[in-house]
Write a structure and sequence with these properties.
binds zinc ion; 2 domains; two-stranded antiparallel sheet; three-stranded antiparallel β-sheet; alpha+beta; 26% helix
């Protein structure tokens, strides 16, 4: 067990803790191994900014989230290629509308990039079926 406080929205509730998916070889995220997803704003927060943070350090942590980590996170975060919603906006939408959906995106192939473009299930409701 650990205590959680979200530097993004001050919530004490989290959804889950997971290992960091893609490896980032430089910068701040280099030393981030796990993230915890907030149950209120749905953003994945690096564990070092939200796990067992002493209350007197919280403002410092918050500052470093908004000034340093969040701008980087925005660059790497999964985003719909149609509506430009970030993954947390989509998960929040699903949660508010009580839609259970494990996958929030599907990929369409983009030959130029060699990777799939993400399309969210809000843009394509038929993908719910
Ligand atoms: Zn939050
Ligand atoms: Zn979308």
């Amino acid at each position: 067990m650990f205590s959680f406080k979200c530097p993004n929205c001050d919530s004490y509730k989290y959804l889950n803790k997971h290992s960091f998916g893609k490896k980032i070889s430089s910068g701040l995220y280099k030393n981030v191994h796990t993230e915890i997803q907030c149950a209120n704003c749905f953003i994945d927060i690096p564990s070092n900014l939200c796990e067992n943070i002493n209350s007197k350090d919280f403002n410092l942590v918050k500052k470093s989230w908004f000034d340093e980590y969040k701008p980087l996170h925005l660059n790497h975060a999964a985003k719909c290629s149609k509506c430009s919603r970030f993954y947390w906006e989509i998960e929040k939408f699903f949660s508010e509308n009580k839609i259970k959906s494990k996958d929030i995106f599907y990929q369409t192939y983009n030959p130029q990039k060699g990777v799939g473009n993400l399309v969210c299930k809000i843009c394509d409701p038929t993908a719910f079926k």
